[in-house]
Amino acid sequence: QVQLVESGGGSVQPGGSLRLSCVVSKRISSIDAMGWYRQASGKQRELVVTFIIGGGTHFADYVKGRFTITRDNAENTLYLYMNTLKPEDTDVYYCSARINRDDYWGQGTQVTVSS
Asked: pLDDT value at position 106?
């Protein structure tokens, strides 16, 4: 069983920044793909960014130029840097990992952007 634990969410004013972390209980190099998704109450979960290990990265249009991702293989941690945050970025953010066609999810971390 693979476990993912997100952290770093919180409240921020519009234009502010946050860094989300996702610690994985498995070496990132052994994972096929990872990503960040977000979901508001009553709405479908939507893609923020996904990347294939050893392959490309794809950002949703609404975060391009504002969000970036990095990873620390030694710490099995994936980071999502969110800049120039907008009120519409308010959501619960989830980290995901795909291993051998199985998808794993973290518990989510709340991000609230409000003045």
From this structure: 96
Using a 10 angstrom Cβ sphere, with 0-12 exposed, 13-18 middle and 19 or more buried, the burial of residue 2 is middle
Torsion sign (Cα): 46, 100, 97, 71: negative
The predicted-structure confidence for 46-81, as pLDDT tens digits, reads as follows: 999 998 877 889 999 999 999 999 999 899 999 999
Residue with tokens 């998808």: 103
Tell me the two tokens of residue 35: 């990503």
Whether 79 and 70 have beta carbons less than 8 Å apart is answered as yes
Phi-psi region at 76: left, alpha or beta (left = phi > 0; alpha = psi -120 to 50)? left
Cα 49 to Cα 22: distance, rounded to the nearest angstrom: 13
